[in-house]
Write a structure and sequence with these properties.
3 copies of one chain form a homotrimer. By secondary structure, chain A is an alpha/beta fold. In chain A, strands 4-3-2-1-5 form a 5-stranded parallel beta sheet, with helices on both faces. Chain A contains 7 helices and 5 strands. In chain A, strand 3, helix 6 and strand 4 form a beta-alpha-beta unit.
């Protein structure tokens, strides 16, 4: 092989390595969200974004933590045996998506009821419908194990959702690192 | 052409395709924000970030949704004819940037007034000034159509802002996907 | 040199330039957070994310602004001489990480106390311990100068934290632009 050709081959090998490194670092077509808030308005927003993103071809991962965790309780499931603290929290926290309130103008529930009736009138899907739709569209949901543990929530009282999984913050970060878009809601 | 040369040409063609794919996926020098909160402090923060980002050479896009939507009402514009629900919301929601309150320590308006007077004393621009500045700097603002519809807000009552546009979540996601930085405020 | 070879060399030079440009634009293995909220739950979440991210090999930068700023006050440090406004704010704002409250269910402090005792029982680190841990792990913290100025907080009353620095929004944006993940909390 000529010296020139050897040089060219060496350059190509170097560039291929660089290309591979860059490709490995490039984020995937994915959107990751921490859903921290348990307010009706914010959780709704997270699902509007999630379902909208799927429609645009993005993979979507949601990580439910802290106040958002009880939004995923199933109101029809019996609460499993809990200790005193767990029972207290169980009573105080909203039991599922139908029980969460607006962050503002709740006005003892009146504002929340008004907003819900408005949404129905304007053909905006309810939170429960949004969650179901997200499940059908393949939006993945992780529930924060530390929050479950702190609030005394049990896996058996959570909604049936395709691919619902329980995980720690490391799992979320792993997804977020490889996502084009990350949001904390 | 020699076999060696053919091999080299093929490698180059492959790498060029990879480079093009990577370039297409690389985010633009852009910052996208969802402004969801209607609290004075958070909306202020969003404009501090927006104007700061422009100063650093970033393109900036803000998507005003939910409680942030009425912040963009113009207090000097007459409200157009609305149905009962729209009129009720119109009364309850703050009428523009001058009417929004702190998220904490509002203390029946006293805390908000104190903060505003402090900002003036310390030469921090007011929210109204910030919005004007953002407009001059070319910060683009989208207003969420679904929020407008839910709250019964009309386009005619919104502020005059260069390049104010009305859009759905898909528009925001399109911008966010190609942005280096995305925030939900 | 043959014409073919000249062509190949030119292609390689072009691609090298493109590769360099792409590499320069690629984000670093870094997570940037604006910590705006001063609520115990949200600040805790920010440190859970921060320390988790370091454990996964990410560099972490936090930008403390607005309500989050007084969380970094040191309760054992004497307050330096302040003007009237500064003294008033100093009294009203929480004095350090031990004094912050939950965003929900604070119930005159009872909910916050309950959560803290639960965290201890479940072996979750307290906010004070989290901050110390973050410092040891090399999480960098910037405190927003504008917020310090507005709230009349002095540098001498802030905690001793390795690498605590005071900066404006430009500094944060510079970090955020080169980060894989950005969050506003």
């Amino acid at each position: 092989m000529s010296q020139e050709m050897e040089h060219v081959e060496a350059e190509i090998t170097r560039m291929k390595a660089q290309l591979q490194a860059l490709s490995a670092k490039a984020p995937e077509n994915k959107l990751s969200m921490v859903v921290f808030s348990g307010d009706l308005d914010k959780v709704l927003a997270s699902f509007v974004i999630a379902t909208g993103a799927v429609a645009m071809g993005l993979e979507v991962v949601m990580f439910f933590t802290f106040w958002a965790t009880p939004v995923l309780r199933d109101k029809n499931k019996k609460e499993p045996g809990k200790d005193l603290m767990g029972t207290m929290f169980g009573k105080m926290l909203p039991k599922g998506a139908g029980a969460v309130k607006l962050s503002k103008m709740n006005m003892a529930g009146m504002g929340t009821a008004m907003m819900k009736s408005l949404m129905q009138k304007k053909n905006v899907a309810s939170l429960e419908q949004m969650i179901e739709m997200a499940g059908e569209l393949g939006v993945r949901i992780y529930v924060c194990e530390m929050s479950m543990d702190l609030m005394g929530l049990k896996r058996e009282e959570m909604i049936d959702y395709p691919g619902l999984d329980f995980a720690g913050v490391a799992k979320f970060l792993e997804e977020a690192m490889n996502s084009r878009v990350q949001l904390f809601i």
